[in-house]
Amino acid sequence: MSFTPEQIIATQKASIETFFGLSNKAFEGVEKLVELNLQATKAALAEVSEAAQAVLSAKDAHELFALQTSLMQPSAEKAAAYGRHVYEIFAGTGAEVTRVAEATVADNQKKVIALVDNAVKNAPAGTENAVALVKSAVAAANNAYESVSKAAKQAGEVAEANFQAITATAVKAAQAPAKGKRAA
What we know:
Layout: H1 5-56, H2 61-121, H3 128-183
């Protein structure tokens, strides 16, 4: 069960390529987040400027109160939209990392199985029990990984559904006072 220098070099090369590929994906996610924050900041500055001018031109307290109410609903919706964009960036980057990790794990599983099969072919007589134990351990590890992977995916789906529900609830909650005050 020894590796040739070529196999070791190929494994190291693949690991380095995977590392740099994941690093690039992480930096792409950071770039998207920075771009989103710059856009949000520019938009917020423009909106604050417009709101300040509107406040300064208000003629009485009633107009000022109506202006304040009209500004609250879009702010909540924009905050929810910003949160969704941030979540999408993190989810997209996480999905890419997960995809690469799953491919790497699958490749490593194949290599381990091939290594075990090669060892089985070259195993001395009388080691059948040890070989069976190793095969069983490899199968158990693969099953455990698949179970954890499925549980993680399900947890991610539940988290995404909860995030969507919370966002929708927050937007509705922000809209409710504005609607109630308009009706009054």
